[in-house]
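Researcher: Please predict.
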Amino acid sequence: MLKGIITPNGLHFTIMHAGIPDIDPAQHKLVIHGMVKQPLVFTLDTLARYPTVSRIGFLECGGNSAPLFSNEPIQADVQALHGLASCAEWTGVPLSTLLDEAGVDPKAKWIIAEGADAPHLSRSVPLAKVMDDAMVAMYQNGERIQPGQGYPMRLYLPGYEGNMNVKFLRRIQVTDQPGMTYFESRIYTDPLPDGKDTQFYFVQEVKSFISSPSPGLTLKELGIYEITGVAYSGTGRIAKVLVSADGGKSWAEAALDEPRLPKAFTRFRMPWRWDGGPTILQSRAWDEGGNMQPTREQFVALRGQTSKPPSVLGFPGHHFNAIASWAVDDKGAVKNVYA
């Protein structure tokens, strides 16, 4: 189990819609066109001459934690329930630098980013986000991005849901409206209890979960344990995390490891004495904008739930960020519960 905030490249989660394309890096090109003064074409060699930036940030599948949409708690470990999230140092060229060189039309409002994979996965991104902190990432934790992460280059959008961070990036069209592509109009939209659908649901909301103790990690004897986990938010830094060891009856503020970076994992820790009795462990996070992790009851009222276990891709729901609960029994076994 990881103890810090950086996910090693070989352990970073990977979701593939159509396998890994066989790309010759010497032939790969990134095209910028559309509502620009001059279309541009970049190879890896030309991009290598531009100033790069590095930032530590999380990446989370929109379907992470989707098993918790089920109206009965699914028994699995923390990896299976919350493991489609990772945090790494990304290095590349700010996309704003390339767009400034191309000369963006003042009437433009969006880009449509396209990958070189088989379905040419395409997503629309607000131009304001692109000019703020989007990156054409070529390195991950100091190494070339791995094939499963989009080699030789990918779009990195700090805090936005994973599928929008288009892998194998090959084309960016600047436009005045979203593309309404297959993946954003069919796959990554969700029905709501009021009969409407979510659309253009970009930001991964404030969230936390306890990684230890957690299902599969049995407490073997009485005494002091460290309750630890990660918190993160797509809108900024984590401000505080509260931990409960009695099912939410009382809460105490956890210690937060430094550095607390925006749109990155923050590890929280709290010492806890287990007396051998049954209990329920929970964590609840707040970000610097005052956004608070909802209770399960609040989340279900807004987003609904399902009696059918969701698939690994998160259907039928995305963006699950409610409080997660682990029950510890009198034998030290830990399981997923709703509380």
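Model: The helical segments are 44-47, 78-82, 95-102, 127-133, 182-187, 296-303.
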